[in-house]
Amino acid sequence: MPDVDATDARLLLALNEDPRASVMALSQRLGLARNTVQARLARLEQSGVLAPFERRVRPEALGYRLRAYVTVQVVQRSLAEVSDALAHIPEVLEVIGLSGVVDLLVEVAARDADDLWRITEQVLAIPGVQRTDTALALRRFVDHRIAPLLERSAGVDGAATG
């Protein structure tokens, strides 16, 4: 993944504030040529800097009101197979590899407690899974965010420090 320079960060901040902004509006706001903005956006998309649109859709809107985090211990050398199997469970939103005692952190969405039970049973049935532990997400205190880091990269005054 390429580094994001201050101009890219300013562009991403502008998109964060107005995701529907046109290339022309972005170029006027940032004082850049339209072609420059277009080229930078294309590069940011192609390189994976910009996450897919689906990241913005909340599972709650689809009836999945329960969120949980499942830690998974995996048999040595089964990580790829377990990760692939998890990717085939629709309710699995994200899988992150961890260092330490547990191998994976799995974010899941469920309709209710019975649905969560079904999902965790599916996870436990995957060959190579040794143990799981499930924690319910009760409340989100800080939404997923990137703006403070973009502000720092863009050199915006008032950006959080420390």
TrEMBL record:
InterPro entries: AsnC-type_HTH_dom, Dimeric_a/b-barrel, Tscrpt_reg_AsnC-like, Tscrpt_reg_AsnC/Lrp_C, WH-like_DNA-bd_sf, WH_DNA-bd_sf
Entries under PROSITE patterns matching the protein: HTH_ASNC_2
MF annotations from Gene Ontology: sequence-specific DNA binding
Superkingdom of this protein's organism: Bacteria
Transcription regulation keyword on record: yes
Domain HTH asnC-type: start-end pairs: 4-65
Record-level GO cellular component terms: cytosol
Keywords noted in UniProt: DNA-binding, Transcription, Transcription regulation
S-adenosyl-L-methionine listed as a keyword: no
GO biological process: response to amino acid
PANTHER family listed in its UniProt record: LEUCINE-RESPONSIVE REGULATORY PROTEIN (PTHR30154), TRANSCRIPTIONAL REGULATOR AZLB (PTHR30154:SF34)
Protein name from the UniProt record: DNA-binding Lrp family transcriptional regulator
Species the sequence originates in: Petropleomorpha daqingensis
